[in-house]
Amino acid sequence: MIKIIPIALLILLVSTTNAQEKKDYTHYVDPFIGTGGHGHTFPGATLPFGMVQLSPDTGIEGWDWCSGYHESDSSVIGFSHTHLSGTGGADYGDVLLMPTVGNVNFQPGTKADPDAGYRSRFSHDNEIASPGYYSVLLDDYNIKAELTATLRTGMHKYTFPESDEAHIILDLEHGIANNVTNADIQVLSDTKVEGTRFSQGWASDQRLFFAMEFSKPFDKVLLAQEDKLVKSNTKAEGKSIKAAFNYHTNEGETIIIKVAISSVSCENAWANMEAENKGFDFDATLAQAKETWNKELSKIKVEGGSDDEKVIFYTALYHTKIHPNTFQDVNGEYRGMDMKIHKAEGRSHYTLYSLWDTFRGLHPLYSIVDTKYNNDFIKSMIAKYNESGRLPVWELWSNETNTMIGYHSVPVIADAILKGYYTGDVQEAYQAMLSSAMADGQGLNDYKHMHYIPREKEANSVSKTVEYAFDDYCIALVALKLGKIDDYKEFTLRSLNYRNVFDPETKFMRGRDENGVWNPDFDPMAITLFGSGDFTEGNSWHYSFFAPHDINGLIKLYGGKDAFIAKLDEMFEQDAVNDNEHAHDVTGLIGQYAQGNEPSHHVIYTYNFAQRPDKTQAMIRRVMKEMYTTDKDGYSGNEDTGQMSAWYVLSSMGFYSMNPVSGEYIIGSPVFDKVTINLENGKQFIIEANNNSDDNVYISSATLNGKAYDYTYIKHTDIMQGGKLTFEMSSTPQSWGTSIEAAPIELAANEDIEIEPRANKAFMPYSASSAQIFKDQLPVELLCQTEGVTIYYTLDGTSPTTESKVYSKPIILKRSTTLKAISIKEGYITSDVKSIQFRKAYFNDGKSEYPVLSTEATISQAYNPGKQTLIDGKLGSNNYRDGLWTGTNDKKFDAVIDLGTKKKISQVTINFTQNTGSWIFPPKSITILGSNDGENFTEIANEQYELPSHHVDILVLTKTIASKTKARYLKVIIESAGKLPSWHSGSGLPSYLFIDEITVE
């Protein structure tokens, strides 16, 4: 029997089906999450990986205003077109517009006094934000501002009150923690404007071009330079360029402004506008933005869980799709790392790579749901390599900022090659990876030679060593895939370098010097920051579990699985304290686990390797519940361009990329009853969790495609083939996944390929005492960290051999001497040559009146150990916080040293520390003058020094100036580097000069 369905019912069925297919996932996204606390997100309008991020700016200075917005504010400056999401550094805020009524004011005003400028008060109750949309009522002007965006354009809709003095202010001086180097504006007609904004900030050379069009012709335009009106009403150029577009408006009248941007030219900006936003239909543009976001968010469908958990999930998924950003114009052109114009052929080009953060979870998430995007992200990295000779480290608007550590482009590229979806030239990509690993600087010279980084040679030596080791493992895997066996062996050995900073006695990753001596002041709780100390934004607890490629090897170092579990437990049971008030990133603490910063992100999942998946399951659910909320401070730390969110997206689905390139994901505990991943190949992978709840966090059993599944990991290939992973959940720990066979295995070396281990190398000899400056004589006792060595030495400056003197007892020095020594042991490679400069000099050991130093220089309050510390015979270490270094940011430091009587002076040696990441630079020049009466000085010597042209971390620089004179008084004039150079993130601000010791011989 044939049933005839009534037309009305058929229409109802079709519309119901379409409604199901077009579920509004944007309903679950709250862009305000992360705008409070230290999340550093912005609430404005953008498209997935869009070039434009159109958002309100409420503040432009201070760490919590890296995105330009913080929920603690109650006034808004205006709406600019570029923003950073969740970063720990600030920049952008280009091309700001602000609608006003009343008198024209080109000053922005302040938070304390908004009436002093065009800034307006607002209430958070009158804000609305959703993907692709933002609106706010500007209380001071009774103007409703609404924002939306296309990929390369921003669209403003301002609804005015009735006014004869309505204005739209354009402020090209405004920026977030950056300075304009040049800007210009060209008024093309009464509806069209174009211009440029070139700036210097975190990106040292940002060049932005814009095109702007108004829906209503403006009555008049006022142009200002340095806040003073210029005669021309068509163009203005300078560092402080602003404009006021004046209108008469009726009550409820709307004016729409479109702004397109480009890194290439105004012509390209207009082409972007023509292609993407031709008309002035705000609602249609918004609808398209919403549709675009729904398409992206629908790649993962979650069911079950609470509404709050859905909001957290889809907001996190939203935040994973803001950066990197489209950078090529509609014609394919973009400005490259060489500042030349290039064209992307057959791909999209992107900028903004926060790779220290995102290699861990964000790019592995892309490898599941966004391979097409990630493929182009990687091709963009390779293009940057070809343009600059380097893979990106932390790239921003085609500028390498050199922020953070490692060469973490490598794991992102390697993962795509190993998973088989990279469509670029694999050999070219491999050479690019090798170029990073074989480069010099950033501690790599010592890392390659000594197989770890000595702490006195480089800041963050432990963090760099362990992260370089992981990156090397990634290269080894690609080398193996390409059949480059020699490279595979070499980089596998390099990947084990992390073991050289693991202290078997304390069972911690620990800094050691070039002699192999462990940091004597080691405290596993002590946090050090990027650019200083042994760790990057963390402490030893945070880094002592970082060997994601060799977890089973790490477990052996700890003494086995029980000891490893005990150490993990101890970390979570420590006091949740942060001993450094400046370590803003070390947040979200459970004991010494820090969810608010990336080094901890993989740690909980390592319990699975020790056959305790129940501990992973319980702790993962705790972190997701406590550290992710729907509040504005709903992230426990910087959102970090998607990494903090990617961790949640992956973990809430039930697994995480503990080793980002292993092709396996470690299973945790799923939040949702059902997750459907809609793969790009048209297949679906479904994760179901039966009997799931806040209490039932433990997995009692699992099946994969209907078959029993006991493994505590899932392979990438299983996910991409489509299928169903089903968990049965329980309120108590179960035996599932606790067998040896069920546990994942991560070993750096492929057991099927024999690799001959490196021969042991003897450590260099070193002096038992730190004293290198003496008055009369100095006994020198030599030690070596390698037991059973024979030490050979010389005192004449020549390199020692087995024909040199054998050390047997302390050496008595009576004059300035260069001691050189080697260690030799049968079966070991001979040590490097140790060279120590001992100086017989005049100094004040506190037992005599002279010499004495006087200075009128302004010393930093935090780095003022006392003037006499500069001549006390004790040398400052590589740690400029050790209490011996004198710091100043004056343009020059001058001091007079009174030797007490006329002395013969052969040379003056001054030690400086150089740590450009902490704004500490070597001197520009040193002048030495002598006097016998303390009033009339004659120049003895003058030396000029070349300043670094790139970031250089900790180096203790010794400047020795020869002299042949007799004098009682010495005047030392040290000229600082002055303002930080253009390539530096603090460009234009004063550099610091750190001094210790001034040695007079």
TrEMBL record:
Residues 1-19 form the signal peptide. Its EC number is 3.2.1.-. One of its GO terms (molecular function) is hydrolase activity, acting on glycosyl bonds. Gene3D superfamilies: 2.70.98.10, alpha-1,2-mannosidase (1.20.1050.60), alpha-1,2-mannosidases domains (1.20.1610.10), Galactose-binding domain-like (2.60.120.260), GH92 mannosidase domain (3.30.2080.10). Keywords: Calcium, Glycosidase, Hydrolase, Signal. Its cofactor is Ca(2+). InterPro entries: 6-hairpin_glycosidase_sf, FA58C, Galactose-bd-like_sf, GH-type_carb-bd, GH29D-like_dom, GH92_a_mannosidase_put, GH92_N, Glyco_hydro_92. The keyword Calcium applies. NCBIfam families: aman2_put. PANTHER family: PEPTIDE N-GLYCANASE PNGASE -RELATED, SECRETED PROTEIN. This is GH92 family glycosyl hydrolase.
